[in-house]
Structure formats: C-alpha cells, structure tokens
Design a protein that fits this description.
It is a single chain. The protein is α+β, with helices and mostly antiparallel strands and about 425 residues long. It folds into four domains: about 90 residues, Rossmann fold, CATH 3.40.50; about 60 residues, ATP-grasp fold, A domain (Dna Ligase, domain 1, 2-Layer Sandwich), CATH 3.30.1490.20; about 130 residues, ATP-grasp fold, B domain (D-amino Acid Aminotransferase, Chain A, domain 1); about 80 residues, Glycinamide Ribonucleotide Synthetase, Chain A, domain 4 (Alpha-Beta Complex). The strands form six sheets. A five-stranded parallel β-sheet has the order 3-2-1-4-5, with helices on both faces. Helix 7 packs across helix 10 and helix 8 packs antiparallel against helix 9. The longest helix is centred in the middle third of the chain and has 21 residues. It is globular. The protein starts with a strand and ends in a 17-residue tail after the last helix. Bound molecules: adenosine monophosphate and glycine. Glycine (GLY) binds next to loops.
Length: about 425
C-alpha cells in the first residue's frame, strides 16, 4: 500500500513512522515537511495550503490512502477535493470538520444528540456576553467560536478578564461562547469513524500548560501519556454508545456523514465524562504516545474507515506497555518562538532504548535547526509509566538547543 501523510508536525512524523513499520505499507510519502519527515518519507510538496496544487501533487503519486493531519486543510476542504479526484482519504469533509471549526455547531450537534457537555450561551454582541457572564459564577469560560490554534479559550476567576476576552473575540470572529465551568480531569479519546460506526483508540492525556504543575499559558501541548490509570479502554468502549454513535447519527440526520477521526476532549468527574470539545483529527502530542502502543495495522484500519466499512476490520490491538511523550519547545514559545538555533544530541537521544524522536518545528536534515514553536517530541515506551518517563527524560537530557523549554512533570500530574 502507498500512503501519503499531509502535515508537518510531530503528529504527522509519528504517523509516518507507524506506517513505515507496517508490512501492509510499501511506500510512505509526505506533503509538508520538517527535518525528521524529510529523512523518513519522500516529500511530494512542502506546502499544503493551496488545495488545488496539493491535490495535483498527491494524485500523481497514486496513493492507496491519504491521511490529513492538521485541521486547517480539513476545514478548507482538502478531503472533498481529493474525493472528487478519486483519491481514498481518511479525514472528514469540510462540512463535517465544522465539529471542530465551529464550537457553536458542535454544541448544537451535541445538544440534539443528547451528548453531555457544558451549557453554553452563544453571544454576538458585548451586552449578550455581559449577561451570560452575570448569570454564571467564576471560574468563567469564554471561547472563540472559530478555530484559534488553542488560543481562543480563556478560563478565569476574574470577571474583567473574561469580559476583555469576550470583547477581543467579538472584534475578531464576531461570535463568542460563554459556558459553564466543568470541574474534573481531562482525557483525550480518539474514535476512528466510518460515517456509521466508531472504534476507539487507547485513551491518552495531554498537558496543555507551558510550565510544571499545570501553570503558565496554554500551549499546543507540552507532553502526553497513554494509557490512563483513571480512564480505561473499557470506559472508552462505553463512550461508543454514549458519545460516538449519537454524534455520527445526528450528523447523518443533518446530511453530513462523519468519516475520519473524532477526537473527544473529555472532562472526567467521578463517574461522568462530559465533552469539553471535539476535534476532527489526531491530537498532538497524544498521537506520539498512542501510536507506539498500537500493535495492529493502522493502515488497514484507516482504509476500512475511509471505505465506510469499519465492520470489516477487528478492533485495534494494543501492547501492555505505557508511553510518555515530552515536547521540547523553542525559546519564546508559545507567544513568540525564536527560530534558528542549532539542535544537538538527536542521534544520542534516539539510541536510548525504547525511545522514538519525532520532529515538529525543525529544518535542515543534515544539521537540524529550530524552525517552529514545538520543536521535537521525545516518546519512550516502557512496562510502566514510570519506566517510560525515565527513558523519555534520559533521552531529553541528550538534546540541546538554545532556549530549549520542556516540562519536567509529564505523566506525573
Ligand atoms: P478547548 O479549546 O475548548 O479544548 O479549551 C481549551 C482548554 O480550556 C481545555 O482543554 C480545558 O482545559 C479548558 N476548558 C475549556 N472549556 C472548559 C469548561 N467548560 N470547563 C473547564 N475547562 C474548560
Ligand atoms: N492535544 C490537543 C490537540 O491536539 O488539539
């Protein structure tokens, strides 16, 4: 099987590494690159922002499967255009991707499907937003309706800060959600969906804040681990009927089949699991922890989902190991990451047993340099989370670049 992966982050590099390890896959191509991807796959094109040109580059390679990593090309309709060109693609249509790109749409689908989530008020002017805040107690949750790369959400005790964020969002996308605060602990659950049915992957957790102890600003994700002691695969299976199937059913009612990955951002509180958000793609950095634990074929699974035929494959199989991923970020991340620093120790890190190094913001295959906010993901597997964490941090200690930032407490909190 020939597979194309679209995207240029560590998530895509992890997908490429998983495909390369599978006997069903003969060749792996990439659209989008970094120093790691360029070393592991044939790069068809480095840019995927122009949909028309991306479809041309991909079609020429005659792939059996295309997997789109990031949300932007999904929302821009890459899957629709590839389908029109007769290319089998795993990922949602632009319309189905609204589950991620419009929080108001997602809330409306959840409401109709009877899926538990925080009650939200959709506001299009400041008076409405003020009113919505007045009827709630702190902490306040204020969200941009539109995609904002993780920067659209403010959770604060301070009413003035909540209102200031609402004002800023209204000046931008023009639509803000004020919603009830959900207490609890978060988890990420990925469902592979074929339009009708869904199969969950192993639950994972990411660490969104920059600093140890869950302090500092929100980021794209500073680390992840899987599996979870407090949310098992059995718990995940329960959510097929409580979350995935009702959502797929409601989407079908609206005339939009959801094929692709449905990422349920969950808040676990006692026995309940409520939805914080949906994404329509693999999570980053959770994917870097989840895929190394998958012992069955990802390519066969995604082909079956893309063909609307998940019932033809077995549920994914998992090793008994644990995986921990530590993200190494650039100086100045997340507000103003600095590019250019020389990276050393990559070869030494990769020789630590059970360690996988995936690249995100890197460039220059022969002498890698920093070229983005999140630079590398260092994943280790082990027989326990403690063992995996020890190996991951041993590998981290080998890598150096100026201003390198990382958390020391991944999988501890
Ligand atoms: P989102 O982009 O919707 O996932 O929000 C980003 C982060 O804000 C989440 O991962 C949560 O940590 C937090 N958050 C969002 N909505 C809520 C909520 N209703 N209650 C508590 N925390 C929330
Ligand atoms: N890990 C958060 C995300 O992928 O959106």
């Amino acid at each position: 099987m020939k597979v194309v992966v679209v995207g240029s982050g560590a998530r895509e590099h992890a997908l490429i590494k998983k495909f390369k390890s599978e006997s069903e896959v003969s060749e792996v191509f990439a659209v989008g690159e970094n120093a790691g991807i360029a070393a592991d796959a044939e790069v068809l094109a480095s840019d995927f922002t122009n949909i028309k040109e991306t479809v041309i580059s991909i079609s020429k390679a005659r792939p059996d499967l295309v997997v789109v990593g990031p949300e932007a090309p999904l929302v821009a309709g890459l899957v629709d255009s590839l389908a029109n060109a007769g290319v089998r693609t795993f990922g949602p249509s632009a319309k189905a991707a609204e589950l991620e790109s419009s929080k108001a749409f997602a809330k409306s689908v959840m409401h109709s499907a009877g899926v538990a989530t925080a009650l939200a008020s959709r506001c299009t002017d400041l008076d409405e937003a003020k009113q919505a805040l007045l009827t709630r107690k702190p902490p306040y949750v204020v969200k941009d309706d539109a995609l904002a790369s993780g920067k659209g959400v403010v959770v604060t005790e301070d009413e003035r800060q909540a209102l200031a964020h609402a004002k800023e969002v209204l000046l931008g996308s023009g639509c803000v959600l004020v919603e009830d605060f959900l207490p609890g602990k978060e988890a990420s659950l990925f469902f592979i969906c074929d339009g009708e049915s869904a199969l969950p992957l192993i639950p994972a957790r990411d660490h969104k804040r920059l600093l140890d102890g869950d302090l500092g600003p929100n980021t794209g994700g500073m680390g992840a681990y899987a599996p979870l002691p407090d949310f098992t695969s059995a718990d995940a299976s329960r959510l097929i009927e409580e979350v995935a199937h009702p959502i797929l059913g409601e989407m079908n009612k609206r005339g939009v089949a959801f094929k692709g990955l449905l990422y349920a951002g969950l808040m676990l509180d006692g026995g309940s699991a409520r939805i914080v958000e949906f994404n329509v793609r693999f999570g980053d950095p959770e994917t870097q922890s989840v895929l190394p634990l998958m012992s069955s074929s990802l390519a066969n699974l995604l082909v079956a989902a893309a063909d609307g035929d998940l019932t033809s494959v077995n549920a994914p199989q998992w090793s008994d190991a644990a995986a921990v991923t530590v993200v190494l970020a650039a100086d100045g991340y997340p507000s103003s990451p600095k590019a250019g620093a020389q990276i050393s120790g990559l070869v030494e890190a990769a020789t630590v047993p059970n360690v996988i190094v995936t690249h995100a913001g890197t460039t220059n295959v022969n002498a890698p340099r920093v070229n983005g906010g999140r630079v590398l993901s260092i994943t280790a597997t082990g027989e326990s989370a403690e063992r995996a964490r020890d190996s991951a941090y041993r590998a981290v200690s080998k890598i150096k670049f100026e201003g390198m930032q990382y958390r020391g407490d991944i999988a501890k909190v």
